[in-house]
Amino acid sequence: MKIAVLGGDGFVGWPTSLHLSDRGHDVHIVDNLSRRWIDTELGVQSLTPMDSIQERTRIWHQETGRRIHFHLIDLARDYEVLKRWLAEERPDAIVHFAEQRAAPYSMKSDRHKNYTVNNNVSATHNLLNAVVETGLDAHLVHLGTMGVYGYSSVGAAIPEGYLSVGVETLAGETVSQEILYPANPGSIYHMTKCLDQLLFQFYARNDGVRITDLHQGIVWGTHTDQTRRHAQLVNRFDYDGDYGTVLNRFLIQAAIGYPLTVHGTGGQTRAFIHIQDSVRCIELALNNPPRSGERVKIFNQMTETHRVRDLAEMVARIAGAEVAYLPNPRKEAAENDLVVDNEQFMALGLDPITLEAGLLSEVIEVAKKFAYRVDRSRIPAVSAWTRDIAPTVERDPEGRRLKSVS
Ligand code: NAD
Ligand code: USQ
């Protein structure tokens, strides 16, 4: 298949592009490199030294003989360029990663809220609009989030996208309907993914666009089979307070002897998936497209759930680290249970990689190798969800006073 990977320079997009290219697909990365600019804005860098996208694709060609093409397009702002590109290239499938994906970054200031909404919603709408306008019958696979549901399972497993409800009619009968599971976003970023869902619902029904939405949990790990092949194919690895996600942050913190930064009681339960499984799931989704006219196909892309404090304790045990319980910069439930249905990927043959000491240690080893690149002052999470919360998060676990960057 000819596959466009939008956002293919990012943490999940890069290993996905390599995996699909390795499987023999003709891969075209479209990216505006905004994530690299955000590193510059925040004064941080990936823990791993990342080469330019052109250099990365050159090394991939040198190692495998396969070509991955790169196209510099801003999906949110260059609608006409995107439309022309789709009309000329006519991909069979499109994988859409190209959004601002950090919840803390989206809550940093009014400017960051505006940027996240404008970038994410316009990128998704421009894409759908251009697919219809160019008459393309490409299967669109979007990376959504578990966060569209909120994180409470109210005593029942969270289903894959849709919920059966009984509606009482005027005649007193109960009619059953399937609706999108009620959206309950916890940040501006997560809210944009809820808005994306409505855009997908509309375009699937109105124009017959074939869409799969993957409601993904928190991705952990760094290497996949393909990124291991050459030092310059290494994946990006975020550790800072805005883009680093919880388990990867704990592993890096353990590697450099920084107390593990648990927010609040650590009673938050979240869904997780290893980066290798994430790329496998995307391939499975690409191989199982919906028909035109079918409703949006929704998968829960996660393999296990864990409580944050349990993860911290596990990492502390493996690596001999300390755990710091800190004021929570976010507005979120202090404790929650989470049970999630992921039957569809299991039925398609996913054999999950679950958390185990060996894999966690592998990530700690990568982190130790690049520990010299860590700026410890960028570890604390200082983007507060509200003005009331901000003053409570101004000290880091090492007791230093902090100032939020905006
Ligand atoms: P990332 O920030 O590393 O990658 C996103 C890529 O998209 C970047 O290369 C960026 O430059 C590009 N991009 C952003 N806006 C763009 C635009 N307007 N035009 C063109 N390119 C643009 O993020 P990631 O961690 O790889 O996540 C990829 C997707 O998966 C996101 O949509 C995210 O919401 C979703 N997701 C990620 C995780 C996770 O734990 N990382 C979990 C669940 C879902
Ligand atoms: N947390 C800590 N300590 C830290 C960092 C985070 O206790 O140092 C806590 C947070 O308060 C939160 C939980 O860990 O309760 C998860 O935070 P996170 O930053 O790992 O994940 P989140 O903000 O939800 O976002 C990430 C990705 C996002 C994706 C989402 C999937 O950045 O793109 O959509 O995971 S999910 O969480 O399932 O919605």
TrEMBL record:
Pathway: Bacterial outer membrane biogenesis; LPS O-antigen biosynthesis. Coiled coil: none annotated. InterPro entries: Epimerase_deHydtase, NAD(P)-bd_dom_sf. SUPFAM superfamilies: NAD(P)-binding Rossmann-fold domains. CDD domains: SQD1_like_SDR_e. Residues 3-292 form the NAD-dependent epimerase/dehydratase domain. Pfam families: Epimerase. Belongs to the NAD(P)-dependent epimerase/dehydratase family. This is NAD-dependent epimerase/dehydratase family protein. It comes from Nitratireductor arenosus.
